[in-house]
């Protein structure tokens, strides 16, 4: 490639790699969107008094927010954690919701009562994330633990369990899920115990199944969710937390049936679960119904559970922009979550290295850190390479933490002054932070393509999505439009999860 003087500028920022074509050709506004605020020089990076504030990153304007599902393993580990002084940061800097962190401030996170409030004793504990003392910009979505109940990791004792989760959510979260019973464990038998319980209570499950045409597992999840919602409605402390109603559904018929029975609950927003993140036509039908029934209002939040691909992040951002443009909810906010950064760490101590922005791929990439070959290798973690890494389409997502740590830090050997077990736990915590920050950066890169000047960088599934969404929300017969375009809608961005 022919050298360009602008490359020298890009080389000084983590967000742009050498010889990468500039997006904006001198547009100062776009420069801020595509470049990080950190100097590339590691020595200058280590001296920064404060990390990147994602509320000031231009690429995050009017987009769906990724909410990392923080694990209790990570959250609890930061309490009283003492780090080696050579790193130049403390456990407080590892707190994503800390605006004074030397690493980064990211104010949109999710935490589940299924991890933090499994028992009455645990529900009373408070830490840096659950003490309620957050910056006003922080949004903490609290999940209610319904999935863990069906997994059997939380004993369900009826309304006392619902009460415990509700009070925990009111104490710690700005936004909270209702305690739904998700459909995900029906096939594996996770709902069978609740079907039997309802039958013992006198609910004629088999008869209702034949009459309504739904399996008993679906009906059990629906009935128990309605019960739990009624408890929320009667006993919630108004204003303590914004409650998000949940829509489940593995297909259109289930989604519609479930939604119709949730309309009686006038909460503060909605959460889409089940197949709603992969069946865009089904989601659009529910949104049109919400609009027409007056359930899309100013200040509302819509959340999509358990998905965090780059396509979904950009696709939901396009959906958010359509909703803001064509409905009364002019400031509606969409978000989505996953625990993927933790899962990547668990997969052989892997570190997220960047994102493959090839329009045919569009995915996060990672590399294994715990290798004997890294023993004595004092290169920064940010320089770890994945085998077969591409040079042009691959965009490295460097993190603030990755400049403090070396490849040698993750070799399977005790650190000075620590046992092997203490070292492993600390390595896990640091990798989780690095991976989570790399996800923030990965989505920042993907959000660049929301600008029409970067349309050619989008996957083909995202090319015509804005036009289709415009058609959905401007059509005089939207349900017919959705039916006619169903195949196209379901083949687009949200389908690949």
What does this molecule look like?
The chain is α/β, with parallel strands linked by helices and 497 residues long. 39% of the residues lie in helices and 11% in strands. The strands form three sheets. Strands 2-10-9-8-7-6-5-4 form an eight-stranded parallel sheet. The radius of gyration is 23 Å and the shape is globular.
Question: What attributes does this structure have?
Answer:
497 residues; single chain; 8-stranded parallel sheet; 3-stranded antiparallel sheet; disordered N terminus; alpha/beta; globular
Weakly predicted, low-confidence segments: 1-26, 30-38
Number of strands: 13
What does the average pLDDT come to? 88
How much beta, percentage-wise? 5-15%
Characterize the overall form: globular
Q: Major sheet: order of its strands?
A: 2-10-9-8-7-6-5-4
Helix content: 25-40%
Could you tell me how far the N terminus lies from the C terminus, measured between alpha carbons in angstroms?
35 Å
Q: Total helix count?
A: 20
Sheet with the most strands? 8 strands, parallel
Short description:
With 497 residues, this protein is α/β, with parallel strands linked by helices.
Write the layout of secondary structure elements.
Blueprint: H1 5-10, H2 28-34, H3 42-46, E1 52-53, E2 65-68, H4 72-77, E3 104-105, E4 108-112, H5 113-116, H6 120-123, E5 139-143, H7 146-151, H8 159-172, E6 175-177, H9 192-200, H10 205-212, H11 216-235, E7 242-247, H12 252-262, E8 269-272, H13 280-293, E9 301-304, H14 310-326, E10 333-338, H15 340-346, E11 350-356, E12 363-368, E13 394-396, H16 420-447, H17 460-463, H18 465-474, H19 478-484, H20 486-490
Parallel strand pairs: 1-3, 2-10, 4-5, 5-6, 6-7, 7-8, 8-9, 9-10
Antiparallel strand pairs: 11-12, 11-13
